[in-house]
Amino acid sequence: MDRVVELEIPARPEFVGVARMAVGALAGIRPGLAYERIDDLRIVVSEACTSAIEMLAHQPPPADGRPAALRLRCIDGPKTLEIRIEAPGSAFDSAFPASEPEADVDTFRISLIRALVDDAELRTTPGRTELCLVLHRDAISADDTGDLPA
Length: 150
Prior knowledge:
Layout (H helix, E strand, L loop, with lengths): L2 E8 L5 H14 L5 H23 L11 E8 L3 E9 L18 H10 L2 E7 L2 E9 L14
Antiparallel strand pairs: 1-2, 2-3, 3-5, 4-5
């Protein structure tokens, strides 16, 4: 059974560390991800959130007047840990451009994100963009599949 944890943070740089710590703590609760993989995930979440925040800083404020926010949804399954980072508008366009990136696009960030996770996919809906990051868990024994601590 998948467990879902959601976190919403203001789209401001000072909150990236909160997202990074929350995702790292969740990833470390159950076995199946080596410490190095959890650290990689923290880096990827930081880079993805920072990329979205930088893009949102150059876009007009939302029409409803509310400050922009990022929503992180962590789906902790038996074989994978999936992190979905949802942002308003086209916040991830610079990190995952639809076509070949322009010369001024940060291709290092794109390469880093793709290298450190098993799968990365960008999903867009009207007014929202979601970056889906997946890490596959190592094979774990039947004893290690118990419930999470309360």
